[in-house]
Amino acid sequence: MTKLAFSNGLLLAFQTIRSHKMRAFLTVLGVIIGTGTIIGVAAILTGFDANMTAVLRSFGPNSIIVFKFPVGFRVNNLSPEERTRKSLTYDNALHLRERCRSVENVSAMLFVNNSMVNAKYMGNDMYDVNLMGVEEGYASGSGQVDIRVGRFFTDEESHRRMPVAVIGADIEKGLFANLDPIGKHITVGGHEFTVIGTMLRPAASFFGDTDSRILLPYGTMQKMYPNARENAIVVTAINGKLPQALDEVRTVLRIDRRVPYDKPDTFALSTAEQMVADFRQITSMTFLVMVVLSSIGLLVGGIGVMNIMLVSVTERTYEIGIRKALGARKFDILVQFLIEAAALTGIGGIAGIMFGWAISMIARLVFTSLPAAVPAWAAVTGIVVSVGVGLFFGIWPANKAARLDPVVALRYE
């Protein structure tokens, strides 16, 4: 088929669509909705993926989070065996620090489950703060501590159980406003602490958009909550030795927790890349489900295109007879109607991309922390799929038009 014949066929297709605007719109409405939904979901998931990947990687490429079950995103719920696992202990952190040669920093992290803690200074209150007991190594190993003013506490202060605290950006703003917080005394859970430092809000954090952290020395936290048993351990590997560090940590903990050689671990080691992989497994499943659901719209749109093209063949039977009488081949008629079907769904695909883009813009306005954006691959895929739907569902009507007998077609009224 020559370029001139293709351009003439495309021009004829647009003229036909323009002469039946409302019919064309209703025909491709399913294509618009299906394509727009896929584009919108892809934009939201792309932004969500970028946001959560930054959060997960904020702990650093060399960090290992040790807990009794995997940290991060899971497809399945906890198994019965995981629910009965014993908590990690402070001694586990000490042994990792002593025996792992590929490890640079180790910090135990003590927290209290199902306990709402409030902080108070003078007449200002902050409710449901994020209280944790950590060690000095947490400041350099977790990637979550960036001191704004003051300093971080030392291991000596932890051993002596000193009543000092380092607070997050929102705690500083809520309790002290324009005051200098250093040296001030705050009340947390009924206990008084001296503020020795404040932290900048992390660029990306597990704790969401708010920074309501209050970090205490590990020993102080133990003294404040003597019944607290939930420990996590943040391990920082030496640069380039993350695999070796993982092996060493696993070996030490299996020995510590007396795990038989033929039994699986009774703890979990989570790295940033592993958590990113788990998260992307979930989002890929979500995207797949949305694609399947949106395909129903494309299927409905494709059936509508096929029906309208059959009507168009019937309406233009006389025109087809004239073209064949003037020498048009079956192939020429076939291509003409396929071009018309592809042009119709292609326009629907472009409208669907605009619809999906509008969804992503609304998502960005509603969720300001979600950088939703239409990825180029989604836009290209939307156009290709839309045109493919038109070609697939346009084959039968086009073939019917191409097989018309010119004598019968010319006699059609």
How would you characterize the overall build of this protein?
With 413 residues, this protein is of the alpha+beta class. The protein folds into two domains: 3-54 and 278-410, no CATH class; 86-266, no CATH class. It has 15 helices and twelve strands. Strands 1, 2, 3, 4, 5, 6, 7, 8, 9, 10, 11 and 12 form a twelve-stranded mixed beta sheet that branches. Strand 3 and strand 4 (124-126) form a beta hairpin. The longest helix is centred in the C-terminal third of the chain and has 44 residues, at 272-315. The chain is elongated and about 105 Å long. The two termini are 30 Å apart. The model has no long low-confidence stretch (mean pLDDT 82).
Features:
single chain, twelve-stranded mixed β-sheet, alpha+beta, elongated, 12 strands, 413 residues
Supply the helix-strand structural class.
Answer: alpha+beta
Shape: elongated
Q: How do the SSEs run, as a string of H and E?
A: HHHEHHEEEEHEHEHEEEHEHEHHHHH
Main beta-sheet strand count, sense and barrel state:
12 strands, mixed
Total helical elements: 15
Give the helix level as a range of percent.
Answer: 55-70%
**How many domains, in number, for the residues?**
2
- Report the average pLDDT across residues: 82
